[in-house]
Structure formats: structure tokens, C-alpha cells
Amino acid sequence: MAITQDQLTLGTNYSAASSSTIALTTTGAVASGGFIVLGVYWFTYNNVTLNSVSGGSLTWTVDKQFQSGGSVNAALVSAQAPSGLASSTSITATFSSSIPTFKGICGASWTGVATPTVIDGTPGTSSGSAAAWTAGSISTSNANDLVVGACTGDASGSFSSTPTGGWTENNDFSDSTDGDSGTQVYQIVSSTGAYNPGGTWSTSVSFSGVSVAYQAAATAAAAAVPFLHRMPLGV
């Protein structure tokens, strides 16, 4: 089964208020058999981690999270939605402690991803200080994967990202109060190899990125079982 885009974006939310959570209210309905990927972003010097995600009566898995010096942080989280997910559903990310600065969350959905979820290769990470960003290279061994990258940027004021050629942007948002942004890109690939989701911020930033490759559902080929006619014994 081929992977196809379901909801290009399920919305975004961000806040600079002190809290240990950030919630997303979905802006569209996820199709039956859908697969949701969230980007979660936060800025703190206190080595805070993403503990869990809940909402929609789904089982959420933190597939990859990465901290660059404990300040600029990004994570990719996923869930299967076998019965779909209604619009206006609240999804909450919970951190290991309260964060007094930027927190953000966004999401998108696809169909055709393997159930149960299969992550192909080793999820990538990357960090730096520049306008050009990368979420980290990931090498796939399966020809048909959904490769997703998420990146947090920290600078000043409001800024945005333009995806690298071949990558489609799902979400791009900025909190001008704290000077932090989050973006998510994806590509549905058709061959094995090394992939490096990325883009270019409109200004030089400190960033952290994560990338994950999800396998497509296997196409079940029905094998015809031949009927062998045998003569009765003794005939």
C-alpha cells in the first residue's frame, strides 16, 4: 500500500507562558486508518525532556527527541488512528518539568503507514547555528518510506523556514515574543538511501532537528493455491 498525505496540517500552537504542557486542537479530521506525526518543540536551559503525549484515545509514541546543549529541543511523536480522529480533538504534550519559555506543537497525518508502526533505519539528529538547517540524515532500507523532519530555531523576533527542494512543508510557525520557531517537513520516498530533511530559516538561528522514517504497509499479494486432483487409492 502506498503512503499518501491525509491532512497536510492538523494545526499549530505555541506559548511562552510558564507551563509543563502544550496542547494542540486539531483543525481537521484524520481519515480512518490514518497515521499522525506531531512535531514538539521547546526552549529551556534546564534539560527538560518530553515525557508523554495524550489525546484522542490514541496510543502515542515519542519516536525521537533531541537536545542541543539542553536549550533548543525537538521531538517527533506518532500514533496510529485506526478509526480516524475527529476535528477539534485536544492533544497534549507533557514535559518533565515546567518550562518558563517557548513551547510549540504541530501535526500532520498520512494513510498507508505500516501497522504496527515500523521505524526504518536509525532516527537522525542535527544541531547548529546558521540559516540552513537539517533534521539529521537517516538511511532507509525500505524502498517506500515516509521520512519526516522537525526543527526548532532560536534567534530574535519572528522568522520562518523554506524547505529544501524535494521536501514538503507541513507546518511553520514563529513566536516573536521569545524568538523561537518550529517547522516540520516530509517526503514520501520510493527508493532506499540516505535522506536529510531540511530547509533554510529567514535568518541565522541556533537549531535542533530530528528525523524519522516510517515504513509503508506491506502490499499483500494473494498467492493462488493450486488444486491438485488425485485419483482415489486403488483405482
Inertia-based shape: globular
What's the main sheet like?
6 strands, antiparallel
Rg to the nearest angstrom?
20 Å
What does the average pLDDT come to? 91
Total beta-strand segments: 17
The structure class reads: mainly beta
SSE map:
Elements: E1 4-7, E2 12-15, E3 19-25, E4 34-43, E5 50-54, E6 61-68, E7 72-81, E8 90-99, E9 103-111, E10 124-134, E11 138-140, E12 145-154, E13 161-163, E14 168-175, E15 180-188, E16 193-195, E17 198-215
Antiparallel strand pairs: 1-9, 2-9, 3-8, 4-7, 4-9, 5-8, 6-7, 10-17, 11-16, 12-15, 12-17, 13-17, 14-15
Report what the structure shows:
It is a single chain. This protein is mostly beta strands. The chain has one domain (about 5-215). It is built from no helices and 17 strands. Strands 1, 2, 4, 6, 7 and 9 form a 6-stranded antiparallel beta sheet that branches. The chain is globular, with a radius of gyration of 20 Å.
Brief write-up:
By secondary structure, the chain is mainly beta.
Give short descriptive properties of this protein.
mainly beta
